[in-house]
Write a structure and sequence with these properties.
single chain; alpha+beta; 11 strands; elongated; disordered N terminus
């Protein structure tokens, strides 16, 4: 009987302990703060989009210090002249030449060879026809680096109403106010129909026209 009473008492104590532990757990759970909707974990934010690349620096032609000269052979003698009025715009990014651009507009009637008769002949309808085609324009949509490491503009020249592709060699040097652009190239006048009638012949006037340019550019932005 004594052993039975002891066993009964032990069982009762064990049940009481389990019930107390369960009640304590429930109480602890009730006491814990409830996580509201605002406590839910937030989804990861997407990474910021890469920043837009800075635009190329814009340059315009300075008021002074510019030269656009030309030369051609006539009767085995070199004739030289220049255009007094022209404008230049350059958007340049040395780290992104493909996004760089160049635009040159020339007032063709401003040519000057220091000989009025020769100037009038060059402006005539049989040659440059400045009355009908008062401007020539070179537009490059990009710059590129050549195999020799030098830079050239990749664009088109429109002269006397004819447009042809032309890669223009450039040398760009930093200055206190911007850049100095310079270079030289050769074009063929008959490619642009500069020479009608008797002037189509290259017997007396050569086909090659040498262009030499040096332009002071001011940083505009």
């Amino acid at each position: 009987m004594t052993n039975y009473s002891a066993l009964l008492m032990a069982a009762l104590l064990a049940c009481a302990g389990t019930s107390a532990a369960s009640s304590a757990a429930v109480a602890a759970q009730d006491a814990a703060p409830k996580a509201g909707p605002q406590a839910a974990s937030k989804p990861a934010q997407p990474a910021a989009a890469p920043g837009t690349a800075a635009p190329a620096t814009h340059y315009t032609q300075a008021a002074a210090g510019n030269s656009l000269a030309f030369g051609f052979m006539q009767a085995d003698a070199l004739n030289e002249g220049s255009f007094r009025k022209f404008s230049t715009e350059l958007d340049y990014d040395d780290k992104n030449l493909a996004a760089s651009t160049l635009k040159v507009t020339v007032q063709v009637a401003s040519l000057d060879t220091r000989d009025q008769d020769r100037d009038d002949t060059l402006k005539s309808a049989e040659l440059l026809d400045t009355a009908k085609y008062p401007t020539a324009q070179y537009v490059a949509s990009s710059l590129a680096k050549r195999a020799d490491g030098k830079i050239e503009a990749v664009g088109k020249l429109t002269l006397r109403g004819v447009t042809r592709e032309l890669r223009l060699p450039l040398t760009l040097k930093p200055t206190a106010s911007g850049l100095e652009l310079s270079g030289e190239t050769t074009i063929r006048r008959l490619d642009y129909e500069v020479g009608q009638g008797d002037w189509k012949s290259t017997e007396w006037v050569g086909n090659d026209i040498k262009l030499k340019y040096q332009v002071a550019l001011i940083r505009a932005r």
